[in-house]
Amino acid sequence: MAKEHILVVEDEEDILELVRYNLAKEGYEVTSVTSGEDGLGIARSKLPDLVVLDLMLPGVDGLDVCRLLKTDPKTKHIPIVILTARSEEADIVTGLELGADDYITKPFSPRILIARVRVVLRRRSEEPVPETATLKRGDLVIHPGRHEVLVKDKPVELTYSEFRILHYLARHPGWVFTRSQIVDAVRGDDYPVTDRSVDVQIVGLRKKLGSYGSFIETVRGVGYRLKE
Predict the structure, then answer these.
(1) What residues are paired with 219 via a beta bridge?
(2) How would DSSP label each residue in 121-189?
(3) How far, in Å, CA of 50 to CA of 104, rounded?
(4) 12 φ, ψ to 5°?
(5) Residues 95, 65: contact at Cβ < 8 Å?
(6) Residues 46, 31 contacting (CB under 8 angstroms)
C-alpha cells in the first residue's frame, strides 16, 4: 500500500523540520516547502493527500494558498490543516470558511499534530453520512426523518433551528464549524438565523440535552464542534 503523501508549507525552518520529522516517523511521505508559491506548485502537480499549511508565509500567504487550492477544481478535494499562531483567531475563522478542514495552533504538540492529521485523512476516506441517516452518539439518538432527538430513550423537545444545528454538528463529529458555517447550513427561507442567535441556540441545546450538553464544545474565537 502506497504511503499517504503530505505537503508541509512552513517558512520557519525549525518548525518545518519538526513537522517533517514527526510525519515521516509515522510513515507518511512528506514534501516540505517554505513559500506559498512553492506550496501551490507542488499541490497542483503532485496532488498530495493532505496539506499542512502555515498562515504567515512570505509572498502568497496561507489564506491565499487555501483560497486558491479550494477554488481550483483540481485541488479543492485536498484536505488542509492550518498551522498558525495562537493569536490569529480571525485568520483561523477565515481559513475554515475558505474550506480548511482543521487547524493547529503554535506552539503545538507533535502528538496532537499526528492525531489531527490521522483524523482528517480518515474523514477523507469515509463515506459521507446521508442526511436521513439515524445518528447515535452514545445514548444520544437523532432521527432526522422523524425530527426526533432521544437521550437515554427519552424524547427531547427542540426548536426547528436547535434540531438543525445539532444534526449538522452530529453529522461531522470532531469538525470545528464557525458560526457563519452553521448559519449557512441551517438557514431556511422562512427562518432567519444570525451569528449571535447561534450562540443562543447552543445555550438552549446544552440545557435541553442535560449531561449530553457537554458534547457540544465551544472552540474559543472560532465556533463549535460535537465531541467525537
Answers:
(1) 223
(2) HHHHHSPPPPTT--EEETTEEEETTTTEEEETTEEE---HHHHHHHHHHHHSTT--EEHHHHHHHH-BT
(3) 14
(4) -90, 115
(5) no
(6) yes
Residue count (the chain) = 228
pLDDT for 98-139, tens place per residue?
889 888 888 889 998 999 899 888 877 765 666 778 888 888
DSSP H or E run through 216: strand 216-219
- The C-alpha atoms of residue 135 and residue 149 are separated, in whole angstroms, by 10
For 10-62, write each residue's pLDDT tens digit.
999 999 999 999 999 999 999 999 999 999 999 999 999 999 999 999 889 99
Cβ(55)–Cβ(44) below 8 Å: no
CATH number for region 5-125: 3.40.50.2300
Three cell numbers, residue 101: 478542514
The CB-based long-range contact list for 214-219 (8 Å cut-off, 24+ gap) reads 215/137, 215/140, 216/166, 216/169, 219/176
Every domain of the chain and the residues it spans? 5-125, 135-226
The reply to whether CATH 3.40.50.12370 applies to domain 135-226 is: no
